């Protein structure tokens, strides 16, 4: 990322949220982006994950300059290269655990052969294979987040973005989820974690602090 800026227009006001972000994330790295509410970390995450584009600056993902791609092109990049884990899980309430994990495969042009088998393997990886036929309302918060992690991995993304993934979880479950993300990283995934929690951020190899739309150096 080079000199990434993001300005939102709200009526007659221009609100500059990101003010020139320079950030290099290496393949296979585990990085935490830490900041308080309103610091710009969520906007930065959205740009990293191709959910949004910057107002100016350059961002290269998977050897492509993605800053000026169309919505359809961004969708392809997301589906092929990025997996998302969110604080609120975003599981479909009427679908089973297995169906939720398989959901991203419906949005790729050529559905992966053996997707069902891979989904079951991922559920085993996150320790919830016995819940494959359950619905989300039959699961605990920690179990739902495990499903969300398996879903994030189903298309074998290079980059996993975790936005406050432990925000609704107790301390014990937080540790379990962070251990899963650490294991994923050790297996070669690039993991970017967005958090306001210093303890959670400490699981990463590198912690980046953002404040008022810029990356700051702490003393």
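-> sequence recovered:
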């Amino acid at each position: 990322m080079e000199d990434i800026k993001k300005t939102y227009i709200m009526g007659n006001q221009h609100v500059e949220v990101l003010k020139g972000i320079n950030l290099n994330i290496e393949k296979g790295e585990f990085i935490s982006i830490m900041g308080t509410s309103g610091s710009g970390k969520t906007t930065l995450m959205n740009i990293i994950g191709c959910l949004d584009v910057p107002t100016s600056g350059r961002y290269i993902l998977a050897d492509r300059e993605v800053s000026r791609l169309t919505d359809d092109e961004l969708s392809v990049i997301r589906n092929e290269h990025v997996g998302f884990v969110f604080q609120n899980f975003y599981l479909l309430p009427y679908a089973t655990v297995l169906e939720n994990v398989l959901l991203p495969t419906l949005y790729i042009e050529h559905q992966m052969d053996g997707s069902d088998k891979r989904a079951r393997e991922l559920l085993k990886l996150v320790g919830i294979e016995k819940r494959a036929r359950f619905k989300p309302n039959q699961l605990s918060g920690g179990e739902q987040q495990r499903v969300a992690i398996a879903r994030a991995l189903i298309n074998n993304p290079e980059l996993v973005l975790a936005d406050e993934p432990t925000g609704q979880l107790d301390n014990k479950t937080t540790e379990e989820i962070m251990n899963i993300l650490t294991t994923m990283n050790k297996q070669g995934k690039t993991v970017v974690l967005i958090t306001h929690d210093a303890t959670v951020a400490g699981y990463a190899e590198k912690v980046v602090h953002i404040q008022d739309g810029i990356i700051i150096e702490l003393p």
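The chain has a mean pLDDT of 90.
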